[in-house]
Description:
The chain has helices at residues 4-10, 19-37, 40-43, 45-51, 54-75, 78-92, 94-122, 127-130, 138-155, 157-161, 165-187, 194-219, 228-238, 242-252, 254-262, 265-302, 304-331, 333-340, 352-374, 378-403, 405-430, 437-460, 464-484, 489-507.
Amino acid sequence: xxxxxGAATAETEIHHGNQxxxxxxxxxxxxxxxxxxxLAGLVLVPVYTRYLPPAExxxxxxxxxxxxxxxxxISLYLDASFIRFYYDDRRVSKGRVxxxxxxxxxxxxxxxxxxxxxxxxxxPFTIQSxxxxxxxxFMPLVFTAPLFTQLGIMGSQVMRADLKARQVSLVNIASFIxxxxxxxxxxxxxxxxxxxxxxxxxxxxxxxxxxxxxxxIRSGVLGWTFDWATLRRSLAFSIPLMPNVAGxxxxxxxxxxxxxxxxxxxxxxxxxxxxxxxxxxxxxxxxVTQVQDPIGMSALTADRxxxxxxxxxxxxxxxxxxxxxxxxxxxxxxxxxxIVTPPSYHEAYVLxxxxxxxxxxxxVYRVFTVVLMFHRRLWVIGAxxxxxxxxxxxxxxxxxxxxxxAAAAASFLLSTVLYTGWIxxxxxxxxxxxxxxxxxxxxxxxxxxxxxxxxxxxxxxVETLVAFAAKVGLMTGFVGMxxxxxxxxxxxxxxxxxxxxxxxxxxxPKAR
Length: 512
């Protein structure tokens, strides 16, 4: 029989209420934490690029690419299965949640240690043949950081599912502080170079692992519990999704290793800077989708048709917002790179817009992936990722030897767009979301006009001040559409309503 916890939670489902208020409230915490933790190097780029030449930054970028692949093998993507089964198990009992959480945690801890041990044995014949660094301390650090990172992610799963964004984000911010302190102390006073950053990237995840594990034990969701049936159910869901993650890594990070093989580590260093600044788009969209994904899954679970309408409303607002942010990042990339890096890195601005657009496409497919995961059409997700990855590898192997960084970035964009088209098409064919094209059409058209104007400015090599004024004009034109295009009236009304709510809350007297 379900315990009282299941009944209580059913009365407070997270999809109830205004989804945009929840996204603003919880997503803002995820954005700040993402900005500080998912790529701590972005915040500290001005410092790192002052002390590290492009070639050493290229070492960091290459090893970072390896570190981002390892969680796939360490966890077998069990964190995706947790969010799928958590809401079902929570309706049954707290004991079912504890079994789900504990089984996945202990499996990842045991399996992950074994994977890291095997990785260290083969590292001299694989990673070191591409990146010319000593085995110690680089290789142990490369494998240790992802293990702690993945255990920290497993430890935070219940809190993320319950939208406890502030608590999760505070832990992640503390993790960032640990990363930054260790890296900067070893880099500046001691002059240990790129290995300083590697040590920092272990310190932060280790802190997150300790804190989240302690919270899990204290809250009663982590215990000495392991259930093979629960593991089989979880792996049956997560393993078919592994090609999706592998495809994402191939599309987004294998380019650094291929570029290092055919080019130089200095090329990889400049490429990494472009990608890091482009990742601002990922930070923003990930902060939003970390809140929207569980809301969407919860809504579909409770009422499928209402859930689809909720997703459609979200897509209209989300697309306008992310394209506005994409334009800011793209139009003013030259100025941003010039401010945060020394002259030896300035040419990296050229590819920022390419990466930013790829992350816009990535944000779109994550929204529609929720529908496919709800219907358990996992083969669609995996097959699309595999196809996208194969095409991307082909593009890179043919084009990177000849065109270098530009080819690597273009291949990433093309493969991401193709994968997004695949996911959206299959999602709409499986269970169509009623998209509002009166809002989406003008949004896409306005962004296209702004990008075309920016491209014309770049080709004409317009004087800096004139170009800056023209870019401000392009950005103003896109934002101004919100107030004059009839199809964008629902977005305008929603924005006005949110401003009104915010003002009302600000005027509300505080309780003593």
